[in-house]
Each structure stands twice: as C-alpha cells, then as structure tokens.
Amino acid sequence: MAGATSSKKHHQARQKPDGGRGMDMGNQHPSVKRLHEIQKQVKEIEPQVAVFSGLSTDRDYKELERNLTKQLFEIDSVDTEGKGDIQQARKRAAQETERLLKELEQNANHPRRLEIEALFKEAQALVEREITPFYEGGNGISDEFEEGIQDIVLRLTQVKTGGKISLRKARYRTLTKICTVQEIIENAVKKQLSLPLSNDVHPSVSKINSVMCEVNKARGTLIALLMGVSSNDTCRHLSCVLTGLIADLDALDVCGRTEIRNYRKEVVEEINKLQKYLDLDEEANSTQAYDLAKNQSILKIEEIRKKMKEVHSLLLKTENASDLYLGLKAELQGLIAHLDEVSPGKNPCIREARRRAVIEVQTLITYIDLNEALEKRQKYPEQTAVEHRCHKAVWTVLGNLSQIQKEVISFDGNRTDKNYMRLEELLTKQLLALDAVDPQGDERCKAARKQAVKLAQNILYYLDMKTDEWEY
Fold first, then answer.
1. Taking every pair of C-alpha atoms in the chain, what is the biggest distance, in angstroms?
2. Distance from CA of residue 341 to its chain's centroid?
3. What is the C-alpha separation between 459 and 367, in angstroms, rounded?
C-alpha cells in the first residue's frame, strides 16, 4: 500500500504545471506569475479585437496594436532562467498575443471591409458635392444624389460578411451613417413647418426665424460630420451649438400667443432630432444593433419563412395538389400580411430581408396561380382547339415555365452547379420562344405574351436571388 501511495503522490505532482508547487499563486515562480499577469491583460484586449470594425489608419486600431505590442515586449522581457516549463509558458503567451495582432490586422484589411470602405468613400464624394446648399441654409438636393445614395445603400446590404462580427459591425455602422444622411435630407426637403410667421407678427418671431436658419446650417454640419468630410467641426461643438439654440428659444417671451408657441415648439423638435443623430456611434456599438441574427424583426421574418417552407414542401410533394390550392394560397397570402407587419425600422438590411421573404412567398402564389390556369384550360379542349395560333404558342411556353418554376423553387445549390446553368439556359430558351411568337396584331395575344415574358423574367430573377449568397 505504501508503494501505491507513493506512486499516487508522484502522479499528482507530475500533473501540476508549476512543477508540483500547486495552484497557489503565492508559491509560483515570479516569472510564471508575471506571465499570468500579462496573459490576463491580453485576455482583456481580446474582445476588443474580435469586434474591431475599423481600418488600420484608425486611432482605435493603433491603440490596440500598441497595447498588444507592448504586451509582447513584456513577455519577451520575462526571465526564464533557462527553465523549460517557463520557456514553454512564455512561448504560449507570445503566440496568443501574436495571434490577436494578426486577427486585428486581418479585420482591418479584410477584402469585404475594404469593399465597405470603398462604398463609403463613394457616398462621401456624393455628399461633398451636395453639401453646400445645407451650409447655406437651403434644402435643395438633386435627383442624382438621391439615386446615388440609394444605390450605395443597396450595394452595402449585399456585402457578404460570412457571419464575421467585425464585418457585420462595419457594414451596420456604414449603413447607419448613410441612411441617417438620407433621413436628414428627406426631413429637410419634405418637412414643412406649419409656419414660419412673418417677422412683423411679433419681435420673438424674428428670433425664431433666425434660429431656424441656424438649424438648417447645423444640418449641413451634421451631415459633414457623419460622413467624415468636415475637419473644422466636432460632434461636441455641434451639440453645444444646438443646446445653445434651444436655450435661446426657451428664453423667448411669446406673450401667450399660441401660434408663436407652436412655431417655437416645432423648431425645438427639429433641434432635438439633430441632437439624437449625434449618438449614432454609441448605438452602432450595440451587439443587438449589428448582429441581426438576434434582431426581433429578423427572427419574425425567419419564423414566417419557416411556415412558408412547410407550405412549399406540402405543395411540391403532394400528388394531385390541386385540391389544396385554395387553402395553401390563403395561407400564403396570410404570410404576406404578416411580413407587411414586420417593422424594418431604419435598417436597410432588415428591409431587404423582408423584401426577399415576400418574393419567396409571392413566387409560390404565382406557381399555384399558373397551375390552376393550366388545369382549368385542360378542362375545355373545345375552346383551346379554336384558339389563335399565337395563343397556343404562349400557353405552350407557360406549360414549360410551370415545370421549370417547380425546379427553381426546389433548387438549393449555387451558381457553379450544373443544374443552375441548365435552369438558366431553359429559362433563356423560353424567353427566346416568346420573342418568336408573332401576335399578328392581336391585342390579347400581345398582352398574353407580355405577361408570359414577365413571368419568365421573374423566375429567372428568383433563381438569381436564391443563389446570390445574400445574408443579413
């Protein structure tokens, strides 16, 4: 028994990483203790690296890089006294710190991050060209600007993040800034105050009108700050200016005049809206904001899509599904209504997720409608026998489209799949067949062909949408 006890003690000593002195930090070698302290500091930096969404030129990047490099120097300065276990511990600590430095660099230079930045620079260029009217207190904006900004927003929603937190955060922050600029401009252009009153009404009105001019200029300053095209102003200074304007309005004597009080109230509300936009960066740092997998609207959309897939499975797998058409169509229309109730807020990614879900449901409804029409036509052969030749040609294509659409709805591959290329080719052939149909001046045939072309294009668009690897 004595030998067994001795063997057990020897085994326990061998299991202890500090050479048998136990886990008591007080008994550890000073070098090991120092390495533990450094590793603790590195561990505290790790979450900041994981969510870093900026560029290598950003102040936050340089600070994180500096802190990690400092820890590397600290690790390197630990004296191992030639002891193998301390040398290994120092090596592991250095490797972990180097891993974080590499991750930080990859986050800042990821191709998708650079794509996001390129789109932001496009938006900056648009803003710089159009910002002058706001600085001058005007509300004018060109159609080119509105269309250009909307196009950039759409392209940003299509940037693939692969679920990477830093990329999701970068995309969200960029979208938030650009969409806020859109909103500020729309409010400035569309929002009409119930007044202004004439300066002759009361001396206070002249001051309110003067403040309103300053508010218009503040809009331009805010847009420039959000888009990083102003080097002369800061958010803090703008906040002070807006607070000062509210103080000026509060100090006015409106003499109990309801119309003047209402005018002042509307101008104060405009100022409060601008102040709210100054907190955007803080909001964009919230995980709930940029990690849309946890967003309540997205969760609701996914729940609706799950029900849609159940209908899809029942529709395509049931033989003689025509008996189910009425009930399934009603259920799908109900899902469209539920999607309409989902609020995207100001997030274009949620709006895009909802739009795509609506298209998925509408595609199934269209499939049911087409099959109902084809089955109804088969019940009246005497009518089809005397149809115009071009009508028959269109119906032949519609029959082919029904079969292709069924395959497209079930398709679950990507654009490199042979089946994708086959389906794309089949749809292109149907479009060419429709193009060859000569309506011979028959207006009904023209309308039928036009409708069939639109259906073929919608199926092709749906196939592309299913395979574009979009993700929120």
1. 109
2. 19
3. 10
What's the CA gap between 302 and 336, in Å, rounded? 13
Instruction: Determine how many CB atoms are found less than 10 A away from the CB of residue 46.
Output: 14
Q: Which two tokens stand for residue 271?
A: 């100022």
Helices vs strands, H then E, count in the chain: 20, 0
Residue 249 CA from chain centroid, whole number: 39
Which segments of 285-347 does DSSP mark as H helices, in order? 287-290, 296-317, 325-341
The pLDDT score that the predictor gives to residue 198 is 60
Q: How many CB atoms lie under 10 A from the CB of residue 329?
A: 18
Residue 72 has which token pair? 């590397």
CB 75 within 8 A of CB 87: no
How many whole angstroms separate alpha carbon 291 and alpha carbon 274?
A: 26
pLDDT at 19: 43
Evaluate if pTM is beyond 0.85.
Answer: no
Residue 204 makes CB contacts below 8 A (sequence gap 6+) with 252, 253, 254, 255, 260, 264
pLDDT digits (tens, 9 = 90+) for 6-61: 444 444 444 444 444 443 445 678 999 999 999 999 999 999 999 899 999 999 99
Burial of 145-170, coded b for 16+ CB within 10 Å and e otherwise, reads bbebbeebbeebbebebeebbbbbbb
Helix (H) or strand (E) holding 400: helix 389-410
Please check whether residue 177 is in contact with residue 280, taking contact to mean a CB–CB distance below 8 angstroms: yes
SS3 call for 232: coil
Instruction: Tell me if 189 sits within 8 A of 141, measured CB to CB.
Output: yes
* Rounded Cα–Cα distance for residues 361 and 367 (Å): 10
What is the distance between the alpha carbons of residues 467 and 462, in angstroms, rounded to a whole number?
9
- pLDDT tens by residue, 275-308: 888 876 555 555 555 566 677 888 999 999 999 9
Q: What is the pLDDT of residue 62?
A: 96
Residue 198 token pair: 């004439």
Q: In one letter, which amino acid is 333?
A: Q
Q: How much is the average pLDDT of 269-278?
A: 87
Question: How far is Cα 140 from Cα 189, in angstroms, rounded to an integer?
Answer: 7
Contact criterion met (CB below 8 Å) for 425 and 419: no
Q: Which of 363, 365, 345 is nearest to 298 (CA)?
A: 345
Across the chain, mean pLDDT equals 83
Closest CA to 68 of 30, 32, 108, 105: 105
State pLDDT tens for residues 413-424. 888 899 999 999
Position 196 scores a pLDDT of: 55
Cα-Cα-Cα-Cα dihedral sign, residues 150, 151, 154, 156: negative
pLDDT band, very low/low/confident/very high, at 322 (cuts 50, 70, 90): confident
